[in-house]
Structure formats: structure tokens, C-alpha cells
Amino acid sequence: MTIAKHLEHTLLKPEATVADIMQLCGEAREYGLLGVCVNPCYVGLARHLLSDTDVKIVTVAGFPLGSTYPEVKALEAKMAVEAHADEVDMVMNIAAFKTGDHDAVVSDIRGVVEAAKPYPVKVIIEACLLTDDEKRTACRLVAEGGAAFVKTSTGFNKGGATVADVQLLAAEAEKYGIKVKAAGGIRDAETAQAMLQAGAERIGTSAGPKIAAGEA
């Protein structure tokens, strides 16, 4: 499998325009990327633009803070798959996690997983805000909630993916039969390859074409 088939070409900036999404989708088509990751309001457009391809349409729920009502996250996921999204990346309720309310975290995840069925859910744990022990616990809760992936970062906080975090999460994820998506600050082929070697299955990046072309 080429590196392109691990890449989710991502544009989640609030100022992204229709023209920007058209460019994103065109690049995903041209470079044979695995998917595009767009805000919910652009799922329908992305699906239309890529309807004759196998490029996955990925969107987000509870993004970027994770602290909205569980019912809202679930509704976002439900509406996304009704608009023909293939996958949903949700943000964990980090506040509940830090408070120690693990039942609430699992329930929040499970609600999105149920709403998105049969499509996979990835859970963003915002690793830059967690200790290593918390990352391990978060990985377990992601699995308990029924999600398919644990994801490192939103890219909107103080840090993105690191090789060390991906290695740690990959070791934990293997125990539970889930996978790892690395995202946040991955902008060149060398970094992307390092993430894959560390155990990531997916890469979320705004530099999909550059990475697919093998550029530094």
C-alpha cells in the first residue's frame, strides 16, 4: 500500500470556502488519497465532488473542544452519515475525562458510535493535554465505547501528533483491537512515514499532495 492510501487530506479551518473544498477534493482525486476530512457543512459537497471515486468522506463531531452535549455529538454523527459521510472523527469529552468521570466518557463515545453505525468512528483524545498514563486509559475507554480508532489530536490545541505518542497509543490499541490515527502538524513525507512506522494506520494532514509526492 502506498503512503497515499493512509492519508486523509484535511481542511477543518472555520474560514474554508466552497472553492477551498473543491480544491481539496480535486487534490484527493489527483493524488489517489484515502480520504478527505471536512467540516459537517461540507459533507454533501465533498460527496458530490467525489461520488465517482473511492475517496472516503470523513467529518467531525464535537469539534474541536469535545465539551458539547452528548446528544449533540450523536446528532452530528447521524446527520453526517445521512449526508453520506463514510467516517466520523469525534472529540472525547476531555473535561469529563480529566474529572475522572470515565462512565460519561464511554457513554459519550458509545452514543456517537451508535448514531454512526455501520460507519467507523475515531475518537480524538487530544494527547497533548494528557499524561502517558491518561493516554493509556483514554485508549481503553475509546475501545470500551466501541470506536474503531484512537486519534492523537485536533490540530487546534497546543500540540499535534508525536512519534512517542503514536508508539504509546499503538501499543495500547493493539490490546483492544483498535487502530491509531495520527493528526496535527504532519506536513512532510518524512514525518508521515515516521508516524506509520510508529504504528499509525491513518494520517490526518493538510499536506496530503505534498506527502503523497514524497516531498520533504
Any overview of this molecule?
The protein is 45% helix and 17% strand. With 216 residues, it is of the alpha/beta class. It has a single domain (3-212), classed as Aldolase class I (TIM Barrel). Strand 1, helix 1 and strand 2 form a beta-alpha-beta unit. It is globular and about 45 Å long. The chain starts with 6 loop residues before the first strand and ends with a helix. The mean pLDDT is 97.
Class in CATH? Alpha Beta
What is the H/E string?
EHEHEHEHHEHEHEHEH
Sheet bearing the most strands, described? Answer: 8 strands, parallel, barrel
Distance between the termini: 20 Å
Question: Quick check: average pLDDT?
Answer: 97
How many H/I helical runs? 9
How much helix is in the residues? 40-55%
Strand order of the largest sheet: 1-2-3-4-5-6-7-8
Structural class: alpha/beta
Can you tell me the CATH topology? TIM Barrel
**Strand residue percentage:** 15-25%
What are the defining features of this structure?
TIM Barrel; 45% helix; 8-stranded parallel barrel; 216 residues; alpha/beta; 9 helices; 8 strands
Summarize the SSE layout with pairings.
Blueprint: E1 7-11, H1 18-31, E2 35-38, H2 43-49, E3 56-61, H3 70-82, E4 87-91, H4 94-99, H5 102-116, E5 121-124, H6 132-144, E6 149-151, H7 163-176, E7 179-183, H8 189-198, E8 202-205, H9 208-212
Parallel strand pairs: 1-2, 1-8, 2-3, 3-4, 4-5, 5-6, 6-7, 7-8
Helix pairs in contact: 3-5, 6-7
